[in-house]
């Protein structure tokens, strides 16, 4: 009996140490699953977050994806490898650039309207992007009996068709360059004069390349402007301060809670602290496992949930004390304490969960991060209080720690 | 514990606090500052957080802003205990923001812009709507939950009165300390809602459990007994949560301080209302013959 109890305690010790080590060191060179692996929001890493809106009522999905490739292209072109452009709602694009020095300059550079030009070898502009009606990726053979391969098909408007016919007639055997924002997208060689307002660009395209090129060309003829409707820029220093002070606050908060529980509930408090450490490690593990972006309010959510996590333990321990005072044996007091405390614990967590879920679905931006960490925290803390703490307390009793005094029972 | 017997005192304390909040709102409103310190997220506009690096001349900063933007009355709020300052003005575009930043750096060589934010009217009105929607939905969801949990309309009603009380006092905190009202405000209010209901439910659960131990005219004793039985839990949970949020407040950066301060007030008020207010309100709502 005693040996079994001690073995169970040893197992929990291994679990606690193992989880802590995992969150601290992670696995392998990339420190997978460690705290360093958790994605940081821009308010922690520093950077700029911009929301663009198309100044047109109804925008088609194709137009939007063209606009996104355009922005992504510009981000790449500026060397912001980590930057992302993603659609939001029907006509908005959110661009996030971590660690940018001059946010305003970035906004001005990304926000210009695209310039698509057809240029001859001498550098004369033959056509501009607004003369293109559509550009699509096609797959088929472009020569007689040739192999089937992806290519880009262009369609000009009336003016474009006329100009293109003239340009191709004058440039047979030469290259016409398609230039986007000063970058050459492709440089096909003219075979014949093209008069039907359609052209194809062939090259050794993969399907994806053809798709990207088509999207870029479409973006060059975007029938709308992108307006900045929201921007937030956090300096790298402020982000770093926010992160380090948040982590520091977390440590101080945790230390205070651990000491308080130990002081109030002696051995039971020790069990709760043990479970709390496992809870914190699990919490951080979930964040890196599910690639959840951590924001500053997110850190607040974690720290808050640590304070709330002991609530379930407190409810249970108070019940155990009451049962001991009524003269129950330690073992049955623990049993009854856990079962009697269950409704109150579930209740309490449900109300906070309601608030967190509503915030998650309706909150915007960084507040979503707060709601996410709060939700994860509530669910995990219920699990650790009801299972982990219970397991540890039962193991302690089995291992021979029987004196009720150690369990917070004061003889009046 | 004579909670119920002292209920009039507790009600008076709460009313005074709530009134102070309203007075602060009307006073600021009459000065033309807005009853609460609305952030750009809800009003639209441009805000900047600048570390001035040293003590500076307010008028000079005002002048620089006027010269660049043509705006006569930007809001300039010093962050107590630091050389940092928060600016709020009508929305200006990227180019003008660059000019303003450069002008400020030229006039105050040690100044450093820590963060900038610009919100258009479209977005701010959406955020307002989302905030109102979130609060309403959360309240309705919790109401449904309370009515399921307490099949007694008086218990549910008094829990809700205690909630309103908490929210009013938290809003009073925002009014008195001029804490910026933004998305964090909604998060604080909803978290306090959940937290406070939780505390009230634990107490009311006890009241129901003690139902058979007291006769029907011993309601005051029953409520008092239930409150004292759950008191250790109410205090301990508030203490640990207060510890962690307090750590954020003491150590954190400005924007998270603005989140932690009202949260701390909310935790204290939530504990106070569940112990001193909700049970007393329940008792007040009982018919004469049951008291």
UniProtKB/TrEMBL annotation, chain A:
State the family named in the UniProt similarity comment for this chain.
Belongs to the SecD/SecF family. SecD subfamily.
**Would you indicate the residue range of the signal peptide?**
none
> Might you report a single GO cellular component term?
plasma membrane
Q: How does it assemble?
A: Forms a complex with SecF. Part of the essential Sec protein translocation apparatus which comprises SecA, SecYEG and auxiliary proteins SecDF. Other proteins may also be involved.
Q: Name one GO biological process term.
A: protein transport by the Sec complex
Q: Which residues does the UniProt record annotate as the domain Protein export membrane protein SecD/SecF C-terminal?
A: 225-397
Listed A to Z, the keywords are: Cell membrane, Membrane, Protein transport, Translocation, Transmembrane, Transmembrane helix, Transport
The answer to whether the entry has keyword Transport is yes
- Show where the SecDF P1 head subdomain domain sits: 121-223
Q: Name one Pfam family in it.
A: SecDF_P1_head
> Where does it mainly reside?
membrane
Query: Is-annotated flag, keyword Ribonucleoprotein?
Result: no
Source lineage:
Bacteria, Bacillati, Bacillota, Clostridia, Lachnospirales
Which cell locations does it reside in? Cell membrane
What membrane topology is annotated for this entry? Multi-pass membrane protein
Provide the gene name from the record: secD
Q: What function does this protein fulfil?
A: Part of the Sec protein translocase complex. Interacts with the SecYEG preprotein conducting channel. SecDF uses the proton motive force (PMF) to complete protein translocation after the ATP-dependent function of SecA.
- List, alphabetically, the InterPro entries matched: Acrflvin-R (IPR001036), SecD (IPR005791), SecD/SecF_arch_bac (IPR022813), SecD_SecF_C (IPR048634), SecD_SecF_C_bact (IPR055344), SecDF_P1_head (IPR054384)
Name it: Protein translocase subunit SecD
Q: Which GO terms describe its molecular function?
A: protein-transporting ATPase activity
TrEMBL record, chain B:
**Superkingdom as given in the UniProt entry:** Bacteria
**Gene3D superfamilies cross-referenced by the UniProt entry:** Multidrug efflux transporter AcrB transmembrane domain
Subcellular localization: Cell membrane
Topological type in the membrane? Multi-pass membrane protein
* Ranges for domain Protein export membrane protein SecD/SecF C-terminal: 101-285
Q: What's an example GO cellular component term for this entry?
A: plasma membrane
| Keywords, alphabetical | Cell membrane, Membrane, Protein transport, Translocation, Transmembrane, Transmembrane helix, Transport
Any one GO BP annotation for this protein = intracellular protein transmembrane transport
Tell me which InterPro entries the record gives.
SecD/SecF_arch_bac, SecD/SecF_bac, SecD_SecF_C, SecD_SecF_C_bact, SecF_bac
State whether keyword Protein transport applies.
yes
Gene Ontology molecular function: any one? protein-transporting ATPase activity
| Pfam families cross-referenced by the UniProt entry | SecD_SecF_C
Q: What residue intervals traverse the membrane?
A: 12-29, 130-148, 160-179, 185-204, 231-251, 263-286
List the HAMAP family: SecF_B
Q: What is its biological role? A: Part of the Sec protein translocase complex. Interacts with the SecYEG preprotein conducting channel. SecDF uses the proton motive force (PMF) to complete protein translocation after the ATP-dependent function of SecA.
| Record family assignment | Belongs to the SecD/SecF family. SecF subfamily.
The family database entries (PANTHER family) matched by this protein are listed as:
PROTEIN TRANSLOCASE SUBUNIT SECF (PTHR30081:SF8), PROTEIN-EXPORT MEMBRANE PROTEIN SEC (PTHR30081)
Tell me, how does this one assemble?
Forms a complex with SecD. Part of the essential Sec protein translocation apparatus which comprises SecA, SecYEG and auxiliary proteins SecDF. Other proteins may also be involved.
Name recorded for this polypeptide: Protein-export membrane protein SecF
């Amino acid at each position: 009996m005693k040996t079994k109890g001690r073995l169970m305690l040893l197992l929990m010790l291994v679990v606690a140490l193992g989880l802590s080590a995992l969150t601290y060191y992670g696995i392998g060179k990339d420190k997978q699953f460690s705290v360093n692996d958790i994605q940081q929001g821009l308010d922690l890493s520093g950077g700029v977050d911009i929301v663009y809106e198309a100044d047109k009522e109804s925008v088609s999905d194709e137009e939007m994806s063209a606009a996104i490739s355009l922005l992504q292209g510009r981000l790449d072109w500026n060397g912001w490898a980590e930057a992302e452009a993603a659609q939001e709602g029907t006509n908005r694009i959110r661009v996030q650039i971590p660690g940018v020095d001059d946010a305003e300059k970035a906004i001005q550079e990304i926000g210009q309207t695209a310039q698509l030009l057809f240029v001859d070898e001498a550098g004369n502009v033959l056509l501009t992007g607004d003369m293109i009606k559509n550009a699509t990726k096609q797959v088929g053979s472009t020569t007689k009996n040739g192999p089937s391969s992806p290519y880009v098909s262009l369609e000009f408007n009336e003016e474009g068709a006329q100009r293109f016919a003239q340009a191709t007639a004058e440039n047979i055997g030469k290259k016409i360059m398609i230039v986007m924002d000063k970058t050459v997208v492709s440089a096909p060689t003219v075979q014949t004069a093209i008069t039907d307002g359609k052209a194809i660009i062939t090259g050794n395209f993969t399907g994806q390349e053809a798709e990207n090129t088509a999207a870029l060309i479409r973006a060059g003829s975007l029938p709308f402007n992108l307006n900045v409707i929201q921007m937030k820029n956090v300096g790298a220093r402020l982000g770093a301060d926010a992160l380090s002070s948040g982590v520091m606050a977390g440590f101080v908060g945790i230390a205070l809670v651990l000491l308080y529980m130990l002081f109030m509930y002696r051995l039971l408090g020790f069990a709760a602290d043990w479970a709390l450490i496992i809870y914190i490690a699990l919490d951080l593990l979930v964040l890196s496992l599910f690639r959840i972006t951590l924001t500053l309010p997110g850190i607040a959510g974690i720290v808050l949930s640590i304070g709330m996590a002991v609530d379930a333990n407190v409810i249970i321990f108070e019940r155990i004390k009451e049962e001991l005072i009524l003269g129950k044996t330690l073992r049955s007091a623990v049993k009854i304490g856990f079962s009697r405390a269950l409704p109150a614990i579930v209740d309490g967590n449900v109300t906070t969960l309601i608030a967190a879920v509503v915030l998650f679905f309706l909150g915007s931006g960084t507040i979503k991060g707060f709601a996410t960490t709060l939700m994860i925290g509530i669910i995990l803390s219920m699990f650790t209080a009801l299972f982990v703490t219970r397991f540890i307390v039962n193991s302690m009793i089995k291992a021979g720690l029987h004196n009720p005094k150690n369990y917070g029972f004061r003889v009046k | 514990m004579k909670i119920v017997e002292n209920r009039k005192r507790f009600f008076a304390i709460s009313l005074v606090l709530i009134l102070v909040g309203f007075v602060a709102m009307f006073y600021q409103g009459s000065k033309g500052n807005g009853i609460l310190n609305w952030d750009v997220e809800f009003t639209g506009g441009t805000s900047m957080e600048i570390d001035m690096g040293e003590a500076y001349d307010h008028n000079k900063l005002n002048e620089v802003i006027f010269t660049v933007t043509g705006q006569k009355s930007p809001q300039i709020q010093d962050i107590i205990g630091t050389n940092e300052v928060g600016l709020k003005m009508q929305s200006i575009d990227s180019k003008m923001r660059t000019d303003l930043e450069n002008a400020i750096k030229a006039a105050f060589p040690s100044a450093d812009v820590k963060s900038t934010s610009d919100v258009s009217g479209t977005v701010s009105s959406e955020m307002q709507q989302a905030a109102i929607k979130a609060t309403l939905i959360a309240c309705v969801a919790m109401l449904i939950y309370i009515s399921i949990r307490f099949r007694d309309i008086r218990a549910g009603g008094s829990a809700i009165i205690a909630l309103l009380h908490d929210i009013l006092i938290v809003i009073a905190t925002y009014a008195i300390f001029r804490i910026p009202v933004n998305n964090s405000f909604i998060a604080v209010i909803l978290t306090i809602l959940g937290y406070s209901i939780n505390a009230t439910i634990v107490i009311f659960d006890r009241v129901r459990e003690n139902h058979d131990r007291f006769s029907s005219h011993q309601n005051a004793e029953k409520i008092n007994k239930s409150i004292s039985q759950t008191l250790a839990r109410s205090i301990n949970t508030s203490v640990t949560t207060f510890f962690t949020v307090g750590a954020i407040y003491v150590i954190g950066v400005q924007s998270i301080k603005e989140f932690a301060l009202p949260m701390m007030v909310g935790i204290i008020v939530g504990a106070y209302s569940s112990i001193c207010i909700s049970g007393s309100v329940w008792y007040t709502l009982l018919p004469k013959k049951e008291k």
